[in-house]
Design goal:
- Helix 5 links the parallel strand 2 and strand 3.
- This protein has a 7-stranded mixed beta sheet, sandwiched between helices.
- The protein is globular and about 50 Å long.
- It starts with 9 loop residues before the first helix and ends with a strand.
- Helix 1 crosses helix 10, helix 2 packs across helix 9 and helix 9 crosses helix 11.
- The longest helix is centred in the C-terminal third of the chain and has 12 residues.
- Helices cover 40% and strands 21% of the residues.
- The chain is of the alpha/beta class.
- It binds S-adenosylmethionine (SAM).
- The site of S-adenosylmethionine has 22 residues, from helix 1.
């Protein structure tokens, strides 16, 4: 590896994101469903189109797309999440693999998405370049990341984990590194994509009670790293404190969250 190369991350991230795959699929993944729906609407995903979700996780977006008649493919690092994706979409072409080296031919897809995934690649620019490579000329690509953290309630849940994580490598981008619109546009342009628009989708998180909220929040790969470093009770305590302001009178929780999507042409 030379000085400009960064390590690939699938081997590290796969086990972390797969550790509590069922909780992710049952509780946490659905918090982004409004974003998948908005992205498919904007990109005009239609019956018969070839569609790739890069970093497909447990496959909720693939399942929605397959329900609309798209011919779906997915790739992710986490074997346990992919097992759920394959259950949900038996007809899908679903691979365990690395975002920086997609197991698909050039110009294979009419539509490509990466929902909160490219930022986890060791080199996100290489990962997005791969998304462009596998998209047909003129195909649409959507990159989804966190919205701007200022004023976003869910940002306090992200912040709660920070003291419990091992120190990041120097200069490592934080979770909101691509949230600012200029940074997101520059990311896409550097990969050779033509930016069409940037749009935000409100996607509030609902949990019926505290145990469900804690199970959902424990299920991310980031939480798995924090649990390995600081222990599950420390993570639960941090999440409980951060959740407290969002408790409703019936004991449920409602937390405002926003996601930012960039739509581009390959
Ligand atoms: C925040 S989750 C998003 C999953 C899914 N898109 C969703 O919306 O639920 C990030 C996903 O990226 C995957 N991932 C992280 N690094 C990866 C890599 N280098 N190659 C392939 N997948 C990766 C993880 O396994 C995880 O499923």
């Amino acid at each position: 590896m030379n000085a400009t190369q960064k390590p690939r991350t699938a081997q590290v991230n796969g086990p972390l994101w797969g550790e509590r795959a069922r909780d992710w699929a049952d509780i946490q993944e659905g918090t982004c469903k409004p974003v998948y729906l908005a992205a498919f609407e904007r990109m005009g995903l239609r019956e018969g189109m070839t569609y790739l979700d890069a970093g497909c996780g447990a496959g909720m977006a693939l399942q929605i797309a397959a329900g609309r008649g798209a011919r779906v493919s997915g790739v992710d690092a986490a074997a346990n999440l992919l097992a759920i994706a394959r259950e949900r979409v038996p007809t899908g072409d679903i691979h365990q693999g690395e975002l920086e080296s997609l197991p698909f031919a050039d110009h294979a897809f009419d539509r490509v998405t990466g929902f909160n995934s490219f930022q986890y690649a060791g080199n996100p620019a290489v990962a997005l370049g791969e998304a462009r490579r596998v998209a047909k000329a003129g195909a649409e690509v959507v990159v989804m990341t966190w919205g701007e953290p200022e004023g976003m309630q869910a940002a306090s849940l992200v912040a709660a984990l920070k003291p419990l994580l091992p120190p990041p490598p120097p200069g490592a981008p934080g979770p909101f590194a691509m949230s600012a619109e200029p940074a997101l546009r520059a990311f896409a342009t550097a990969a050779g994509l033509e930016v069409l628009d940037v749009f935000d989708v409100a996607s509030p998180w609902h949990y019926p009670d505290l145990p469900t909220a804690l199970r959902g929040l424990r299920s991310s790969g980031v939480a798995a790293r924090a649990i390995a470093h600081a222990g599950e009770s420390a993570v639960d305590a941090a999440h409980s404190d951060a959740l407290a302001p969002f408790r409703q009178t019936d004991g449920s929780f409602r937390i405002g969250a926003n996601f930012r999507c960039l739509r581009a042409r390959a």
